[in-house]
Amino acid sequence: MKSIKVNNFLSFFLYRLIAIFLFSGLTFFVTGKIADLELYVDCTYDGCENYGETTLIAMEIFQFLKSLLLTKILLIIFLASLSSTILYFLCRRFVDKNNFKYWALVLISPCLLIYTNVPTKELIFFYPSLIYIILESSFLIYKQNNIIPTLLKFSILPFMFYWRGYFAAPYLVLAALVIFLKYVDIGKISIKLDTKIILIFSFIISTLLINIFHIFYREFFELGIEYLNSSFSNLSSQFRSELDYSFMTDPFNSIYIQYISLFPTLDELLNKPHQLLIVLESFILIYVFIGSWDNLFKILKKNKSAKKMSLVLLTFIGVSYFTIYGFVGSFNVGSAQRFRVNFIPLGIFFPLILEKNIREKHNQKLQSLKR
């Protein structure tokens, strides 16, 4: 499958950059703010004693950039331009006609258009996580004759965990899991892999894990729920005001918890109709997630060992989403949209890059046989 022409993909990014500016302006017009711009650019240490270390570091970085660029508008233009340039050069070799629609849809998702182009902690986390996923995909598919990518990969991981804490935990586990899958024979599987069935299985495992954790670590888990409720509380919705310890640990509420992490509640939509955009984004990301993994499974249908590895990877990623991102995101739909930025490299970019690397390796083998 021929790659998308460089000029075409570059044109897409130029249109995307225009969309970032328009969408940022529209967001400010409708909501009166753009993500956490005021926090990171205008807040001083005297008024921000209660913020964590990484938040204070992010403030220093963005306030320094603003002092150089003088205005918030110029700061956003600079960050969006730099961010788009980095993203273009990181992704362009993994895009072709076979997967372009998935790349295009995820790259124009509002969460990426906003949170990776304005002052946020997600902006600082997103690019190291993407670089890590590229390196991990290469490690899994190709023979490693150079130690530099491995050293770079394991130097990125500590920063990711420092910067985003438990949101980065799945990336650390993935590093160990990939090493295990690459060097340990876990057997073969001949059945057809179905992304939706694997996700249902992952959801069941996640529900069991959450309840096992709360049984054995009840006090710690209860404190965690109280912290999340106070940190992300959303009093604008009566449907989120009851997310206390007893509700969150009831397995019969698991589907509802995941639902309100993806979608605004009815009263939220009535109060803020613009949140229909979150509904649209959620459906698009679900479609892209399933499509990207289905694409990967299609090219592995004859490789029974690789299918077993992919089954393990998707199960782990699904459990990670439901246990961390989906669970925590249920407390506040706006925060849930921001948390998606932390998950997208792992859940969507990873299968897209893996699939492209596998096809590229297969083509290289065919060319070597023809010589």
Any overview of this molecule?
It is built from 17 helices and no strands. It is an all-alpha fold and 371 residues long. It has helices at 6-31, 37-42, 53-69, 72-91, 100-107, 110-115, 121-141, 148-164, 169-183, 195-216, 218-232, 245-248, 254-262, 266-271, 276-299, 304-329, 333-370. Helix 4 (72-91) packs parallel to helix 7 (121-141), helix 7 (121-141) runs antiparallel to helix 8 (148-164) and helix 9 (169-183) runs antiparallel to helix 16. Helix content is 75%, strand content 0%. The radius of gyration is 21 Å and the shape is globular.
For the largest beta-sheet, the strand count, sense and barrel status come to: none
Task: Give the structural class.
Answer: mainly alpha
Average pLDDT: 88
Radius of gyration (CA) equals 21 Å
Question: How many helical stretches?
Answer: 17
Helical content band: over 70%
> Outline, from the CA principal axes?
globular
Distance between the termini: 20 Å
Percentage of residues in DSSP E strands: under 5%
The helix/strand series, from N terminus to C terminus, equals HHHHHHHHHHHHHHHHH
- How many extended strands? 0
Q: Segments where pLDDT lies below 50 for 5+ residues?
A: none
How would you summarize the topology of this molecule?
Elements: H1 6-31, H2 37-42, H3 53-69, H4 72-91, H5 100-107, H6 110-115, H7 121-141, H8 148-164, H9 169-183, H10 195-216, H11 218-232, H12 245-248, H13 254-262, H14 266-271, H15 276-299, H16 304-329, H17 333-370
